[in-house]
Amino acid sequence: MTTLEFSYSLNKLSSSLKPFALKLTRDIDDANDLIQDTMVKAFTNKDKFTEGTNLKAWLYTIMKNTFITNYQRMVRRGTFVDTTDNLHYINSSSVQIENGVFENFTMDDAHEAIEKLDDAYKTPFMMHYRGFKYHEIADRLQIPIGTVKNRIHIARKLLKEALMVYQHKN
After folding, report:
1. Which CB contacts under 8 angstroms, 24+ apart, belong to 121-128?
2. Residue 126 and residue 152: Cα distance in Å, rounded?
3. What is the pLDDT of residue 4?
4. Would you state the pLDDT for residue 113?
5. Phi, psi of 83 (to 5 degrees)
6. pTM
7. CA-CA distance, 81 to 71, in Å (whole number)?
8. Tens of pLDDT along 4-46?
């Protein structure tokens, strides 16, 4: 499919995306933005589209994934948009004061928990934490790769139990 044919097909399908975008966003302006983002991503990734497959389904998938990514980004930022006319950000980071005390407690407890691990678990875990791949750890420690994966898994499980006090409750 040529670029011109692909562009024509995208343009033809763009209006059929609006109901789905409205269902996701529940706002006409956000829906239009989502459609625009979807079209831009589809056009820039046209080489990833397999000719002969369902273009409309591909666009719906891009739209859904774009919406999810944008939603997760908004949640991570931790801001809430005031929907009044002036559109202020309620929890703007410019007015927050950071206190690193809790981070120090967390890191100290994490280091202490790691130190308490048996060397059989601590060594592969720390190597993986420092960026070594599983096969590199297996080669260096001269143990099977399955054993490396198992020991790292057990180390994570033990650390999760040791640091349970930091688990967020919803």
Report:
1. 121/151, 121/152, 121/154, 121/155, 121/158, 122/155, 124/148, 124/151, 124/152, 124/155, 125/151, 125/152, 125/155, 125/156, 125/159, 128/152
2. 9
3. 87
4. 87
5. -85, 10
6. 0.45
7. 13
8. 888 888 888 888 999 999 999 888 998 999 999 999 999 899 8
Grouping H, G, I as helix, E, B as strand and the rest as coil, residue 89 is strand
Higher pLDDT, 107 or 44: 44
Whether pLDDT at 170 is above 50:
no
> Which CATH number fits the domain that encloses residue 78?
1.10.1740.10
Can you tell me which residue has the tokens 């410019």?
Answer: 94
Whose CA is closest to 17, among 1, 49, 40?
40
Instruction: Tell whether 75 and 147 lie within a shared domain.
Output: no
Both 74 and 125 in a single domain? no
The domain that contains 149 carries what CATH number?
1.10.10.10
Please name every residue paired with 89 in a beta bridge, in sequence order, or none if there are none: 81
Alpha carbon dihedral 117, 120, 121, 123, in 10-degree steps, equals 90
Tokens of 104: 């120090």
pLDDT computed for residue 6 by the predictor:
85
Q: Which domain holds residue 37?
A: 3-93
